[in-house]
Design brief:
This protein has helices spanning about 35-45, 55-70, 105-110, 115-125, 150-155; strands at about 10, 15. α2 (about 55-70) packs antiparallel against α3. It contains 5 helices and 2 strands, in the order ββααααα. The model has no long low-confidence stretch (mean pLDDT about 85). By secondary structure, it is an all-alpha fold. A hairpin with a 2-residue loop joins β1 and β2. A two-stranded antiparallel sheet has the order 1-2.
Length: about 180
């Protein structure tokens, strides 16, 4: 059947809920230790879904820095704890890369530890990350327009991988990531 039981919208458009139109990503944690199988799956699906792979404490430490900065700038609803990151009703936020600057917990999460270890195993050698972090802080109902990351990151090579890292639990009620099947080809 279709995912969930409530209407889903992407950028103001109601999504069709049939299994042919909307489905869950394939969980790849079962093949995490097999780099060849991971490369095969990413070649087939265009992505790898690894829920729970990153250290939850590191994810939440990164989130706390981000939400504290948003709170300090008056960008979240003060009637809720800062860690909940409840947007102000009038918020139009979509992109907020400055909350990633000098954010040591976020940099450890994204550019060290399990993330880099994964890529080194997956690619079979040393890896290099970009110096800039494309940090999206998206208010409810706005979303990010459909796009391909190579437009932003493909200077010099198209041989790159992007990791979408939510800083907390992201159920369908909060949004998430939509990938167009086959778009990697």
């Amino acid at each position: 059947g279709a995912i969930g039981d409530h209407d889903l919208f992407a950028r103001g458009r109601r999504l069709e809920r049939t299994p042919e139109a909307l489905g869950a990503l394939t969980d790849s944690t079962d093949i995490l230790g097999d780099a060849a199988a991971l490369r095969g799956r990413i070649g087939r699906d265009g992505c790898l879904y690894l829920p729970g792979y990153l250290d939850r404490d590191e994810v939440l430490a990164s989130r706390r820095v981000v939400t504290a900065r948003l709170a300090a700038e008056g960008l979240i609803d003060v009637d809720h704890p800062a860690d909940e990151a409840v947007a102000l009703p009038e918020s139009r936020l979509r992109f907020k890369p400055d909350v990633a600057l000098d954010n040591a917990p976020l940099h450890r999460l994204l550019y060290g530890g399990r993330m880099i270890a994964f890529y080194e195993r997956f690619l079979g050698g040393a890896v290099r990350h970009y110096d800039f972090t494309w940090m999206r802080v998206v208010a409810p109902g706005l979303g990010t327009p459909p796009h391909g990351d190579v437009v932003f990151m493909g200077r010099g090579t198209h041989d790159l991988y992007t990791s979408w890292v939510p800083l907390g639990d992201v159920g369908l009620d909060l949004g998430g990531l939509i990938i167009l099947e086959g778009s990697h080809t």
